[in-house]
Amino acid sequence: MDIYSKIVFISRPRIWLYTLGSFLFGVQMAFLLGYAVNLALVLTLCALLTVPVNLFIYALNDYFDADSDAHNPKKNKFEHRSDATNTHLLYMAAVALALISLVMFSQEVLVVKLFVLWLITILTYNIPPLRFKARPGLDMLFSANFPLWGFIGYAVVAHTLPDLSVVIPIAFLSIVFHLYSAINDIPYDKSAGVITSAVYIGSVKKNILLCVLLTIFAIASLAYLGWVWVGIGLIVYVIFFLLHLGDTLLSRDLMSAYRYFIWIHYLIGIPISMSILLYI
Question: pTM to 2 decimals?
Answer without folding.
Answer: 0.93
